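Render this sequence as a predicted structure.
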Amino acid sequence: MLIQLLFRISQQHSMHVTIFILLYRLIIKDNVDVIRLQKQLSEKSTSLLVLQEKFAALQEVSHNTKTEQKNQGALLGKVEELTLGELQERVSDLEGERNLLKNSYDSLLEMQRETQGMMCFLKTDEKIEETSKDLTAVQASHAETVLELQKTRDLLLLQHRLNADLQYMFLVLDVKSQLYIIKSYICLCVSQGDRLRVEILSLSFNRSSSVALDQSVHQVYVEYRLLGITMETTETPMSLRKPTDGEEIHYNFTRVIHVDSMEAAPLRHYLYTMLEGSDPNQGRLKFTVVSEPMNEQEECEDVGYAYLDLQELLLTGNDFIEEQIDVVSADEEQDVVGKLKVSVEAAQALNGIYQEYHQIVKRERGEPRNSTENEEEEEESGIQKNELHVLDFEVDEDSDFY
């Protein structure tokens, strides 16, 4: 499509160039005609001036003729008083004057005809001037057309470059997005079974609750506790103003806890006891809402608790995503004072921990195992032997045998 578009543009450009050449030739031809007509106009203008001078002279002669005719009338009145000889002389003089007047009248008629011809020529010159103005307008319109064609060509070239750049950017973004999706999927598949992801999203209090009405509570934060995990890493990094009038405050605090390392063995066992329900919280993960005093010398105070049932997570195999759980007061009444929104992604990890320690407990109790458990144990033992075999051939750089 791009090649066809460029081909059409080139054809249109060649057509416009041909039209421009034809118009340019026509303009040159018209300019030559205009110059010739201007030259003739100047010559005719000079002739017209001469004729105008002659016409003025004829008018003067005509005026003189009228005066002489008046004088002739006066002379006719005196003819009776003249003698015959004088009358003949006067008649001859009058005939001469008549012939002179006739010749003058003929000259005057000829000058009038020439003047009328010059007037027609002047009208033709006016048409030439109008044609010259039209030609100037055509030239200006042609120049504007050429300028618009150049602008259109530049815009087409710019659009072509932008389309090429956009196609390249889209291709790069598509490749990057696909790589990101593949990488995320691989990381998710590899590490999802070896980690816990706990996210504290938001907190709200009921308007009539004791915490909302307590004037001593100004700022609150949320925490939870897991064995072997530093306390500072499982609490929201900052305390926020206590929500009032049913509003909701957002923490958006996320903590990822890996449970596949050797250091995490106590945590794995603790999680197993939670899944068995033998821990003090009866298989529930406890979240604590803490009031932070405005005075640093005073101590923090627990104002509410929220519980998330990990046994339900193990049984259903579904993670808790943006789960709304009740917050109960920290006093003996344990009234519901608000809502805590959390997400816990731990289904695969807890299932693996439970299966691992459940087999260990069965082995210690001497209970019979089914064929599936035997095959899994053989596979694990084979993997451990392979790992030990590899470790036997590794050499420590800091050892004395290196």
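Summary. The longest strand covers residues 195-205. The radius of gyration is 58 Å.
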